[in-house]
Amino acid sequence: MTRRKLPLLLCIATVAVALAIVAIAQTATPAPAAFATPLNNNQSGAVSNGFTTNAVFAADEAIFMEEEDIGDGLGPVYNARSCVDCHAQPNVGGTSQVTELRIGHTDGAGNFVNPTITINDGANTIPNRSLINDRSICAQDSANVPGAETIRALRATTNVLGDGFVEAIDSNTLLSIANAQPGQSGGQIAGTFIQVPLSEAPGQVRAGRFGWKNQQASLLSFAADAYVNEQGVTSRLQPNESTTVCDTVADPEDHNDANGLADIDHFARFMRATQVPPVDATLAATSDAQAGASLFNAIGCNICHVTSITTSPAGTVINGGAFTVPAALGNKIIHPYSDFLLHNVGTGDGVVQNGGQATANMMRTVPLWGGRTRDRLMHDLLTFTRNDAILRHAGEATGVINNYRSLSTTQKNQLITFLQSL
Amino acid sequence: MSRAKSFLLVRLALATAALIALQACNHSSNGAVPAEKPIAVATPQPSPAASPTATPKLPPPSQAEVEAALHRVFGDDLVAIANSQSFIAGDFNGDQSEDLAVIARPTAGKLDDVNNELANWTIQDADKAFIPPPGKKVVVPPKQERPRVAPGEQVLAIIHGFGPSGWRNPDARQAYIIKHAAANFQGTAPSVSQKAIRAMKLPVETEIIKEIRDNKKGFLFWTGGAYAWHPEQG
What residues of B are in contact with residue A99 (Cβ under 8 Å)? Predict the structure, then answer.
């Protein structure tokens, strides 16, 4: 090589290295996966996904686990005193065996109508609310379910582990999945994409993705909604109690701490910092599970239980401008086994929330990640084997489930082994 | 190349690399990546329901059709009890598609296939269906053992319909084998006609099968996830 060419080569090499660094920076990488929020009162073992330090994560987890009392604003009606009372299996933020009750009725035109609940011996009512709380801070607040409310549905606790990555999915990605489904299924499957209001960005909407009816689009909205509806604690985003009977604490009850953050901010930050549920690596590596994974895709389960989604790039502004996807959550590949869309697979509960009347009998595709930690299945927890859960799918899923019915016993076992590895 | 030119070239390369790196950093952290694009999809309004289309009126089932449907779904594992009183059609699960219920028994030698945990049907016991108690709100459903069909036991085989042609549709293969439900059929009726069902506040309105079982009047109904038997009241 001549001395004259050296600067030119150096120049090319420098630019190539820079381009390579850029390419690596923009390549999607797997989201960190672990059950890393063990049920320890001192939060030992809590490991975040990198969105926060482990110390901050543990502090947020402590608030997620905190038991509220009347002085904190608990109630007047509520279901549990702490997030972890329901979100606990197998780690803090997971699921549980607890279901809650939603009720209502239909009018003459077939529209779902929210009930008016009577309390305090008929002296007060809780209007326009399908959720029935099981507990109250005083006897007067015990709810009487009116006999005219002919719809009664159970809903299981949802898992929130890994939900920071779900929040970071671009709404357009979910819409693309919905648009592709009819073509993938001979027109049988068409996920319903809904956009719902964001509490933290008034006037803005975004693709719903949290809750059995996709009624929330951001984790902060979800946290505020759950805090007021499950624990009865009002916040800046949900400042109104469902009833004021026996209520002694001024609203909003969730105040900012010394760091300027309210509990709902800590809840949201905790959820955003959780790692995604990991697979059972040993089982997943078996030939049966791998064959089952292939069958899962071959018969069409993956049309709704989508195997891989990549989150928005870091820096993307989401939630109506209220949140920017951080590096820890951006451009990450996740395996949720859900399309986060609403479908009618014959298991609907007749209840309408944010999606309009046509969604009464639709439910969100349950993410199957972490599914091996549950033995009561489907949204009402009334199915106990994976085979029965599969066979319970009808409606839009009919073609796919008929494909399952055509599998041999060996193949069905392989597919179920795969499901048990998730 | 002169020394000055070489020096310039190296400086230019370093500057270019720095610019590329800066651009990348901007993309990943400073909001140069565009915000999530708003989607022009109408936010759902509380408009009238896609009003529940009535279950299409279909001709009554014939014995031959019933046997063909039973064979399509259960293969040779079940055999229909051959008489015209042993089957009945209606929208038992409330999805506006006609379903079929047939009294049947396991074929001799096929009991293991009928009871196979991975069979293409769900076995339920109409006397053990879990119905959430109306007085409780947060409910922990019980775990139940999977029921098994006994040799020669008469069961009710139910095929859920799919689409306008209901149980006759070749794709209609969602099926249940119900223990303690094979009885004398007394017709169908809307579920809301029964006070006991109204009190249960089930998520769907369906048609029930009125039956006489062990000399007791009652009805078989869909809870939303299972078939259950209830004695008639009043």
Answer: 138-141
